[in-house]
Amino acid sequence: MRLAISLLTVLAIASVIGTVLKQNEPYSNYVIQFGQFWFQVFEFLGLYDVYHSGWFLAILAFLILSTGMCIFRNTPLMLREMRSFREHATEISLRAFSHQAEFASHVPPDALQNRLSQYLQGQGFHARIGAPSGSGDILVAAKTGSYHRLGYVLTHAAIVIICLGGLIDGNLPLKVEQLIGWKKIETRDLPLGEIPAASRLSPANLSFRGGVTIPEGSSADVVFLNIADGYLVQDLPFDITLKKFRIEHYPTGQPKSFESDITITDKTTHETLSQTIRVNHPLIYKGIAIYQASFGDGGTRLTMNGWNLFSPSSQPFTMHGVVKQASQLSNGNATYSVEFTEFRKFNIENFASENGDMASGWQNLLKYLKTGSAKSTKKDLRNVGPSFQYKIRDAQGQAREYFNYMLPILLDDRWYLLSGMREAPNEPFRYVRFPLDGQNRIDGFMRLRAMLMDKQAHPEIAHQFADFALQGERISASMKDKLVASTVKVLDIFAAGGYDALAKFIEKSVPSAEQEKAAQTYLKVLESAAVSAWRIAQAKAGQPAVMDDNTLRFVRDSLNTTSDLFSYGAPAYLQLSQFDEVLASGLQLTRSPGKNIVYGGSALLVLGVFFMFYVRERRIWLLVKRQAGTVLFAMSTNRKTMDFEKEFARHKEQLARLLKE
What we know:
Distance between the termini: 52 Å
Helix content: 40-55%
Number of domains: 4
Low-confidence stretches: 353-376
């Protein structure tokens, strides 16, 4: 009994873990979530697929066998006890009861036993009169509530039935096939047609739970089962075609509801069935439940403007891409693969600060975007528009991931285009903000960036800066040439590595005591030269060059962004200009024949608990002693409660009155 209770406790804890911890996720997700050490610990314990783990199924099988044997041994005895009146109890045993009393009676024994039998039946008891003893004594035995023993049988049977349902849904035959090598988990990323038969499951598979994502207008006849560090392919007995996917949003842009219009085509009969499924309203066909689980991108077509970030040209190029596919990108020196991974039409961000004021700082947005776990009692949720996510992979296979917003975002009272970068999936995105010019376009920044990156333009920038800086000053030509040369050198260093390159140059060439003063001088020269570069770029583009505080701040932002580009890691910046959204429905398909068995066992368990706790067995014995002219009254119950004490006192009082009449 103790072992069984311990095993049931283990199963209960495992079920809680299986409910809280999302099961059958790709192993990379668990590594990101828990770290390498705890990932390995939880993997060893089988917590990523609790209900199919070997130890879980072994406990279920053991409980079925042990509890089944217990039922087999004890049920006949309990049934006999239920039918037995114990009408052969002796006087000695009755006097040993804690609840017993004796009454004198002058009623003739034959009439007395009939009167006692009628009384017991009137109180809801079933009575039986035993055979007279050698001295002529007669025992009237009665009982009620004997069916409480069914509770023990029903609860034990419920445990067997529930464990059996769990064992069926645990797909023990598949485990055996994996053990002997008939089925193997596939870990390679292969086209569907190239997946070997050893990694495919037939439509007759006992139970499964898997998912499939179907774009609008497409079909699927398989689902993928995530198992350990790979997958198995489950063939279906029908085709699923997604006719239309619909989604509704709240005013903030958050998803409100989504549903799919699907058509089922039976592979055997070729019959079709069309139905709309939505969250918590599945379609069940041939024992397979089809749930609306999620939604995603089904191959949205993207059109982007791109800029070569380290080119002296400010002209954009046009690039096309499709989500879930890859395109080629070249900067003239190398070719890269751009893998488009995700498109979001809505992005909900919190612009409220902790005290409830409107957030005005870059740090507040970055805090929300980076951690994904910042909690705020005050919320100002806004939809900042579409975004797309992609990876840029070089010839060596190294990739960085990028997250770009389509629309500008207002930060610190200025408009920026945001682009996030990370080198690994478990890292937060680090955002670069591209400042917009007075016309709320990125063109002004790109023109200034091109001038700063173009070493051929640096002398022109330096001369204009020198002319402006020395305006009205009497200075020799040689001194002016030195200022021009110094400015060109500062621009060249900045164009080679941004602020970091400038800092390294100062540390290397300037004595430590003078480094701070030199840094301030170089920064002033760089900022002033950047203003001159902006004037030249504006003039070449035929744009006005009005200098004010907003322009100065724009130039400073542009210098910061240009410096950040050296750690941005991408050869080009891609700005989404148009998109043709294609949605996909995420469906979860399950075959769970053990589910109804578990439900039945649970109902049986409730019934058994009811019998055990709410049905009380009470037994009464009345021994009519012919020679002594007395009646011995004894009473027992399976649970002694206050109610039983009151019932005993009541029977004692009523029997005393009955025997005096």
